[in-house]
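Notebook, bench 3.
Goal today: get a predicted structure for Aminotransferase class I/II from Flavobacterium laiguense so we can plan the truncation constructs. The sequence was checked against the plasmid map this morning, with no discrepancies at the termini. Length recorded as 810 residues. Pasting the sequence as submitted so the record is complete.
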Amino acid sequence: MAKIKHNNFIDTVDEVISGAKKEGVLHLYAEDQILNGRTLQIKGKNMFHFGTTGYLGLEQDVRLKEAAIAAIQHYGTQFPLSKTYISNPLYNELESKIETMYGIPPIITKNSTLGHLAVIPTVVRDEDGVILDHQVHWSVQNACQLLKIRGIPVEMIRHSNLNMLEDKIKYLSTRCNKIWYMADGVYSMFGDYAPIQDLMELCKKFPQLHLYFDDVHGMSWKGKNGTGYVLHILKELPENVLLFGTLSKTFGASGATLLCTDSRLREKIKNFGGPLTFSAQLEPASVAAAIASADIHLSPEITSLQYDLSDKIEYFKSLLENTTLPMIALNNSPVFFLGTAMPLTAYKMAQRLFNEGFYVNPAIYPAVPIKNTGIRITLSRHNQKEEIKTLVEAMEYHFPKALEESGNNPNKVKEAFGIVETIQQIKNVGIKTGLVLQYETSIERINKKNWNVLLGKQSTFDWEGLSFLENAFTNPNYPENNWDFHYYVIKDKNGIPVLATFFTYGLWKDDMLAPESISLQLEEKRKQNPLYLTSKVLGMGSLFTEGNHCYINKAHPLAEEAIVLLLEQVETLYHQLNANMLVLRDFEEDEQLNRIFHNQGFLKINMPETCIIQNTGWNSVEEFATTLSPRSRKHFMKEILPFEQAFNIVIKGKLTTVELEQTYKLYQNVKNNNHAINTFTYPIDVFQKMEEHSDWEFILLYLKEEISNPLVGIMFCYKNTNHTYVPSLIGMDYTWAKEFQLYRQLLFQAIKRAKQLNLTKIDFGFSATFEKKKLGATIIPKVAYIQARDNFSMELMGTLQNEEKTSPAK
């Protein structure tokens, strides 16, 4: 739907992490006096350690420990000087041994995150372009943010989607010199591999293509001399490939290393690679430990260590293959992933395994999409086969119980990870709690009186308004404005309503709430492909409406059960439709809803604020002015009221053919000039059906001072159940907009008209909250909860820059 704004993203992550922390599965502390790699003590309980990234267990090797201790005794705890000036006495030996391992002189960095920040802005030139794999490590994506400042295009593809990669290469080929594709060798969450051989074939097809691999999770346990998974496949490093390895994780020490066959480029990175120049160097103890580890890597012992781990991986894998557990990307890496889909299931499963004496990693957003939550299990040489077998038995026993405890089921997990076998059908069912669900696909089959009692009096979704919307947005010729409607009413066994809502299914622009600069870039691309970066969305309410789309009887003892029942039914529909995103929107902040929706796998994001006016007790313009704050009153008397006399104001229930064409052009003016909420342009058919409906009327503003008395403004307004006035859409001629304060005048005329009709509420909707507040509107913050197949669209928009590079490479 929308790119999450930066602060909103931070707030969302904080809320997710805080929720996991409250469940006791994150931000834990090991309490051991002595660590052995095999077990951990957490909250007084000893657990077998299945969460390490030290896959070969070298961090506990006595040779590395003794080397680190000796280095501290000889050289101190650190060597406080930039490596540009002078390196500590052990560096030369480490670099020599790493060169022997790879056959290439290395660049040693403090860690991989700082390494990427040093290397990527140096190797990627202004005339180059970058394509990121959607799941490439955050540290790589973060370093690429620096490229956008320089106007370098940074594109993104879906995870390991080579067809999409080829399309992006073709797109950049006339604009860029080199094209860098950046990926992980082994991905840290699911443990799957980059398609390296296929990528090398693409390099033959496109000589511009260069590859940048972060192989920190492939290091040591794979490859000759433990040089990693990528080199295990490639055998030797081609000129067009840059490779990042690590001296931490499996290597057992600290730091990272870049391998590059181009000696001139390597020197350029060393001469000015940001953190390489200005950051502290590795501590003597870390360098010494790395030297000791390199000695092991250069000896035949590395092969036996790799075999020992491989044997345990195959044993674990063979046990898992004989279960029905939903393991994702089951292969021969030491990283395994048990899918749970819902965060609450992951929390419950982690807690159960903790209680059984197994430490595992809950994998939650943003490391994985919210609906791809799960348990990451990693193996190391420290793990013994007896506890591996017992872990699998515990997983088999507790997974069904964790599902049941969290209201989840195996089918929902399979659906979330795209391994659907059968999709459940929506049924009007009675359930054990006594709730009964009515599901319909037209408002015509919902009782009008009951619907209006529950959800009338707001926006355009009273019963009559929804009847209009169903008619107006059945547009097979306009797929972007062709919606399906879905209604849910949940009652208790006595017929008392507990919950009621409606959803629409259709296409949304992924940048609907993104910054305007991003929407402007995407609209340029949509000139060639109108449906570029759009998604099939099952969303609460509709893109035409705003307000509280979901009635919940919170005082009812079954309210929470009704919400969970709704989510179950809506998610079934979501999978039936194969939608890209599920959106629950326009809620006010509510702690109970936050908890329920988060545990069910939804992310909360902030929506635009909505504006309403409920003070219509005034009887004259002068009285209206007194309802405003002193500052707003001054603004009204100076910027709005004096301009009223410049217009002939006409209110009509019907428009002529000419007027309809004129007003539609005015609407298009506003739509094309405003991308703050970037939706599709409605076809003229919608306005024709609006004009035919008795509850719609039109406020038209004609400019008196011009000879032709031109129509310069229109407000399209809906009258909801003799209660609420809804100025839904607006049209303006921008030639006169600024001089005559046209927008403000239209707002004021809508307020006056509501008063004339004795309607007690005005729903002013989203956007322009500053202007509406000055006319007495109350501003109400709103939030939405979203669930997506993946994070791709949101992260892709994060790669867009302020100014797109369009000039071809020279």
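The domain at 436-608+788-795 is CATH 3.40.630.30 (Aminopeptidase). The chain has four domains: 31-55+302-412, 61-299, 436-608+788-795, 616-775.
Flagging this for group meeting.
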